[in-house]
Amino acid sequence: MVVAFGGHYVEPMSRLKLAGVIEGTTLLLLVGLAVPLKYFLQNPIGLETLGPIHGLAFLAYSYLLFERYQSGLLDGRSALKLSAASFIPGGTFFAFRSVE
Amino acid sequence: MILPYSLLKIAHIVAVMIWVAGMFRLVEAFSRELSTDEAEATLDFDKAWTVPAMALAWTAGFTMAWQARWWQHSWFLGKIALAVAISALHGALAGRLRRGRHTQKTLHPLLLTAILGVVSLVILKPGF
Questions:
Q1: Which of A62, A80, B36, B116 has the greatest count of CB atoms below 10 A from its CB?
Q2: pTM for the full model?
C-alpha cells in the first residue's frame, strides 16, 4: 500500500483518515453483521473471517496514528481522541473533524 | 485465505530480517549528525524496504497466530509485546526524522535487547 500511494510524504493525514475509515468499516461489519450472525443464527463464519481483518485494520490504524503523533502532526490530546474513536463503531468517520 | 503454515513462516522470517535491517539503519541515523541528503536517503530506504517488511511480518505473523491459536500462550504474548515495542520505536523514529525532529541518542542496546527477547521467547517458548 505504501508503494501504491507512492511519491513523497505529502499527505500523511489523508492516509491516516483512510486507515480510519477502513478500521471503522470493519468494526461496524463485525458488530453489525458478524456478531448477530453468530449469536442469532449460530453461524460463526462472520467472526472468523472479519475478526482477523478488523484486527489488522485496527493495528495498522493505531500504528499510523502513533507515527503522526511522534512526527508532531498531532498533539497528544488529538491522538488520544482519534485512538478512542477507533473503539466506537463508526467513530473514526467523524473523529477527524474535531481534530482539524 | 488459509495459507500453508510453512509458507507464512518463510514470509514472516524473511520479512523480519529486512525489517530488523531497516531498524538498525534508522537507529544508526539517530546516533549521529545527519545531513539532509542522508536523512532523505534513510527515509527513502525506510519507505521502500522497512515499512513493507514490517507490514508483511505483522500480516504473516498475525495469520499464523490466528491459525495456530498462539494467543493462548504466555510466551507468545510476551513476544507480541516486544514486537509492538519495536514497531512503536519505528513509528517514533521515522516520524521524527520526517519532520526534522531528529536528536542524537544511542538506541542500539535497546533494539538489540528487544530482538534478543523476541527470538529467545520464540525459540525457548517458556511455559509451553
A1: A62
A2: 0.83
